[in-house]
Amino acid sequence: MQTQNAIGESAADQKTGEYLPVIQENATTLNDLVDISCRRYRHLPAIGMALEESLSYKSFHERILAIAAHLRRLGVKQGDRVALLGENSHHWGTVYLAVVRLGASTVPIFPDLPEADVHHILGEMRCDVIFLTQRQIEKIYDLKQQLKHVVTFDDYRDNTGLITLTTFSDFLAEAMAEFGEAARNETLEFPKVHTEDLAAILYTSGTSGFSKAVMLSHANLCANAYSAGGVMRIEPGWVFLSVLPISHTYEFTVGFLLPILKGCRTVYAGKTPTPAILQKICETEQPHVMLVVPLIIEKIFKKRVAPAVEKSAMLSFFCRFSVSRKVIYRKIGAKLYAFFGGRLQVMGIGGAALNPEVETFLRDAGFPFIIGYGLTEAAPLLAGGPHGDATIRPGSTGKPVPNVEIRIADPHPETGVGEVLARGRNVMQGYLNDPEATRDTFTEDGWLKTGDLGLIDGAGNLHIKGRSKSVIVLSNGENVYPEAIEHKINAYPFVVESLVVENRGLLEAWVYPDYEFIDAKTAGQNRTQRHRYIADLLEEMRTGLNEQLSNSSRLARVLERREPFVKTATHKIKRYLYSADNIQV
Question: Does the pLDDT of residue 279 top 60, yes or no?
Fold first, then answer.
């Protein structure tokens, strides 16, 4: 298949690559990691856009070195910062690795951030070089005095005269014309980069407070890539299909560094793919590995799996029983497996908690998946798998990944729940220019406070119960984990998302409905009838939920919210923005 081929690779190169020695040591800088892999797998395809030819590891390496030399020619030096603001592409990762080659730091910016946040980050980081896409241009017009070099990943040319741009194609052509031969011969020399040197500064988009600038070193990212490699078996030549923002550490470490480490081919879907486009990509690329956030797989379950069962009285009946439910889910799971190309070895699910009902379906269907847990401050993976471990219990995130330690601080004597603490080479250096926040995030003996509550079961699996700042303590002293209630609410077919809050000692749920579902059920009705239908649905749901909850955890009200909640890069609701006092319908 043409898309499996690597460009820029001669027969002589391939033959030479077959006899290169296999180096076993773990790299401690991104530069060493890339050098080792690009020599070991030089004849294999490395990276590219979906449905297009990919660069070979050899050509990928040459581009990294040439771009690094060109950036140095433009004035980027050790200790500088270069911003990356754009949707996924193979150019994004190439530039990232070129920047750190110089001993400079990258500043990956989530592309959905509003203009004010982008201005704040670029101003605080004092970046004067930025790579971005057309969708992001308007966010930087007011910063033209600060920015010396602006390069467009997607070759966008601005005709407004408001800013001077260079297309990536022109930038790359200049780099290859001047430094291409030296890159091919690996005669370019760069500053010595050390393991503890800063590789990236990432702004968190946490659910419980304002963003902080996380400092991740070369050692942090390399350690976590190797840890991720110990969670599942991965073979050279496998295809990773990337659909999540590479600016987030989850996709960057597990979906970019890990495949490079293992000699795999990474392909980018480009813009957020529709189901039809995703199906076409999967049919052609037949990925072995995909990373998704729970929202993606939960949407598939609610839009395709649940309706197929509910429309059939017979299927609904037999799904009440464990044995027959597994048979039915296996057949549905086979169709889902075929949708993703029929070659999927593992789907990594992380970034937020997975709905228990969806996890039950995936398990019963025999679908190849693994749940992971982590946070940006840990580069990011802390727990997950290992894939195929029969002792992983439903509702857990699996075991701590290799070379990461996890313990529970001050566990409750009855429940075993306490704050999750972590330690390992992957844990951040701290928050930039914020020693107080850094100090508060670590224990006196150096363990990272995750801010999550959880427990470790007898088999060593980590169970996350929710954010410590999200826990609602009722007047009777009982702790309520709102995320657990929200999972139950979100399982209803007419619910897109929900938030449980406390209001004067009582629990309320705010629900953003699936208005496409509502429209289909209320076709031909007037506005008043439609609102009554929604109100009845919510009250019926409240009654049903309260039968499943303890007396003190029952919902006093369920109210309709008419717009989506503000969310983080991994689609978690920013809870700190909402309270019973200021949340709006």
Answer: yes
Look at the domain 2-259 and name its fold: Rossmann fold (3.40.50)
Strand partners, 267: 48, 241
Sequence spans of domains, the chain = 2-259, 289-342+344-467, 472-577
Which helix (H) or strand (E) segment is 306 a member of?
A: helix 306-310
Stated as kind and residue range, the H or E segment containing 83 is: strand 81-85
Q: What is the H or E stretch that residue 295 is in?
A: helix 294-300
Number of other residues whose CB lies within 10 A of the CB of residue 155: 16
- CA-closest candidate to residue 456, choices 372, 392, 370, 532: 392
Distance in angstroms between the alpha carbons of the first and the last residue of the chain: 52
CATH architecture of 289-342+344-467: 3-Layer(aba) Sandwich (3.40)
Sheet of strand 495-503: strand arrangement: 495-503, 506-513, 555-560
Classify domain 472-577 at the CATH topology level.
GMP Synthetase; Chain A, domain 3 (3.30.300)
Helix axes 168-185, 57-73, angle to 10 degrees: 110
Residue 76 scores a pLDDT above 70: yes
Tell me the one-letter amino acid at 424: G
Q: What percent of the chain has pLDDT over 70?
A: 93
Answer whether 385's CB lies under 8 Å from 402's CB. no
Which has the closest alpha carbon to 509: 570, 565, 453?
565
What are the pLDDT digits (tens) for 402-449? Answer: 999 999 999 999 999 999 999 999 999 999 999 999 999 999 999 999
Phi, then psi, of 386 in degrees rounded to 5: -70, 150
Query: What is the rounded average pLDDT for all residues in the chain?
Result: 90
d(Cα 496, Cα 490) in Å, to the nearest integer?
A: 6
Find residue 348's DSSP bridge partners: 291, 370
Confidence (pTM): 0.86
DSSP-derived secondary structure for 258-272? HHHHHT-EEEE--S-
Q: How confident is the model at residue 475 (pLDDT cuts 50, 70, 90)?
A: low
Is there a common fold for 2-259 and 472-577?
Answer: no
